[in-house]
Specification:
alpha+beta; 32% helix; disordered C terminus; 18% strand; Glutaredoxin
Length: 117
């Protein structure tokens, strides 16, 4: 199970972000877990000065605001695809990943640009 982190010190926006992410995970039945990070020292490791922030695979994918429902769905669907990719290209519609690369939210598209065909 992949962990999606919500960075924030406990403000209402941070709590709302966590609620939205959990609702989307439940709605889409994704194999993801939301982890709340409230320790300011840990938050600073991500170079985040404005919270809430969302972290997937140690990459900050959103910061400084509560995601819309559609933004949350996109973030979590991309996180889910990256975690479910077996490296055989099945997540991208065929082909193999080059050099053992896996899909990630930066390169994965429905067209399968992360896979060699």
């Amino acid at each position: 199970m992949k962990i999606v982190k919500v960075l924030g010190t406990g403000c209402s926006s941070c709590k709302r972000t966590e609620e939205i992410l959990n609702a989307v995970i439940e709605q889409l039945n994704l194999d993801l877990k939301v982890e709340k990070v409230e320790d300011i020292q840990e938050i600073m490791k991500y170079n985040v000065m404005s919270t809430p922030a969302i972290v997937v695979d140690d990459i900050v994918v959103l910061k400084g605001g509560v995601p819309s429902l559609s933004d949350a769905k996109e973030i979590l669907e991309n996180a889910s695809v990256a975690s479910s990719c077996s490296g055989d290209g099945s997540c991208c519609g065929g082909g193999n990943h080059e050099h053992g690369e896996s899909c990630n939210s930066e390169s994965h598209t429905k067209e399968g640009s992360c896979c060699s065909h």
